[in-house]
Amino acid sequence: MLMGHEVKASSILIIDDEPFNVEILLDLLELEGFTHVTGTSKPVEGVQLYKERDFDLVLLDINMPVMDGFQVMSEFSSILKTIHPPILILTALKDKEVRIKALKSNARDFLEKPFDSDEAICRISNLLEMHLSQKMFEKYSITLEKSVQERTRKIEQTQAEILDCLAYAAEYRDMDTANHTVRVGWYSRIIAEKYGFRANELDLIQQAAPMHDIGKIGVSDTILLKPGKLDADEFKLMQMHAEVGAEILSKSNARVMKIARIIALSHHEKWNGKGYPKALKGLKIPIQGRIVAIADVFDALSMERPYKKSWPLDKILNLFTEESGEHFDPQLVKLFMDSLPEILIIQEKYKDIIPPS
Questions:
Q1: What is the C-alpha radius of gyration for the chain, rounded to an integer number of angstroms?
Q2: Measured CA distances, 49 to 12, 23, 28, 347 (Å)
Q3: To the nearest whole number, what is the mean pLDDT of the chain?
Q4: Can you say how many angstroms the Cα of residue 289 is from the centroid of all Cα atoms in its chain?
Q5: Are 137 and 180 part of one and the same domain?
Q6: In angstroms, rounded to a whole number, what is the distance separating the alpha carbons of residues 202 and 184?
Q7: If 245 and its partner were Cys, which of 134, 145, 224, 264 is the partner (CB 3.0–4.6 Å)?
Q8: Does a structural domain hold residue 188?
Q9: How far is CA 314 from CA 186, 290, 339, 347, 349, in A?
Q10: Tens digits of per-residue pLDDT, 179-235?
Q11: What integer pLDDT is reported at residue 306 of this predicted model?
Q12: pTM: predicted TM-score of the whole model, two decimal places
């Protein structure tokens, strides 16, 4: 609830071409305890004051030379303000059309000349209370919005940390560091940006991509940690990690988890339809899965693990050239090649440190 002193401390602008009328209003408002009142008999100066300062109420005459009240209100409308103050028209005109025109020009109320002092103070106070309440509500709304944004930021930060833990859990059993998931997230973001993803979509794919192999949690150590090549039966069991991962991630309605589920299920599909688990072909493979397929394979080949050596870069690039249109989406392969300088920077920044055996 507004206090009387808040209303009396409001900032008021008086614009009337008759200096005498300005003085009357200044004296009246000062007598009533208003402490921030500015008056001018020059409409152009009044517009400039309105532009430079934030007023809570404008008392405006209609019949003025050089610039009448309607022109002044038109100028006001062109000035950017978070909340425009109410306008109280001072006029001796009784013409209905003038009043309607003034109301259509954003005037809120009228004060007839010569005016009654008590009525003038009541109208001024009412308009000020209304405007100050609006300002208070706007301030509260902004504070509330900032609070919601901060809470959302904290929730998103917590969510990102949980996703990192999930991704690390998936990789923990078959590698020494979780940097693979970090790199895959960054590589996917870089390729997605080249493809034309919007900013919020880039954040989602970077957060979701590291969970592409979350289903490995459901694969036995015998298969997951086997140093040699898997036989046909073992490979079928390994392939199940795509559907296991999708099942794990299906328990959440969060958008990032939905994207992660799509990636987990589709990142082993191949452009030629010979991938798994659904043997999807071409554009039927979700774009997120096609992107992560490139990021994942590139990182797997370029990374040294205790049981394998890394491939040299030229050999990896030759593979992608050969598999463009076969394993990988050819458009995305081109975007990957174009993005190589950025990708190599990420690779170096988040490189694995293999402890000596």
A1: 35
A2: 11, 18, 21, 58
A3: 88
A4: 25
A5: no
A6: 13
A7: 264
A8: yes
A9: 21, 22, 15, 15, 20
A10: 888 999 999 999 999 999 999 899 999 999 999 998 988 888 788 777 778 889 888
A11: 58
A12: 0.60
